[in-house]
Amino acid sequence: MDAQPLLFDLPLAPKMPLPEGFRYQDNLITAEEERDLVARFQDLPFKPYEHLGYFGNRRIAGFGWRQDDDGKMIETGEPIPDVLAPLLDKVAAFTGLARDAFRHALVTEYSPGAGIGWHRDRPPAVAIAGVSLLSPCNFRLRRKVGETWRRASIIAAPRSAYLMSGPARSDWQHSIPQVEAMRYSVTFRTVAR
């Protein structure tokens, strides 16, 4: 008799619950809405992502706020473009937050192999809502507790949305490992007035 347990006989590792203040919804938009939106992204003013001299392997188009040379967020007064208005309406309905509370929008293009490292969005961001487009990603979260990290993750499916507010925004870091296929995300941030 073989003393080694079979893989499927082993107990499953406990799944870490998502942090307080994190919400997720599949199918915020339809596949047709996704195709139309991504096609319209081709007209956006994308530029390589750069932060304090570091260039990430992705392109961005930001509206309403931008980072200055020291990495601080400053308001530009530039409105969120009309192409994002229908999506913003759906995000506001999903989050329960007022549409005009979202004063920053960021469209990020992730080519295969691109990801985003561990970080926590800085103030003035209060709540962050994102929509994942074209391909799934592993949306990871972590928080340091003593000498160890508490971790949680979710597969963000195409056309899904998430909200990070409260402790999920202020106490947890998030990251996305390298994606396997072209992916876009649209991130909306509320900003304290």
TrEMBL record:
Residues 101-192 form the Fe2OG dioxygenase domain. The keyword Oxidoreductase applies. SUPFAM superfamilies: Clavaminate synthase-like (SSF51197). It comes from the Bacteria. Coiled coil: none annotated. Pfam families: 2OG-FeII_Oxy_2 (PF13532). One of its GO terms (molecular function) is dioxygenase activity. Keywords: Dioxygenase, Oxidoreductase. This is Alkylated DNA repair dioxygenase AlkB.
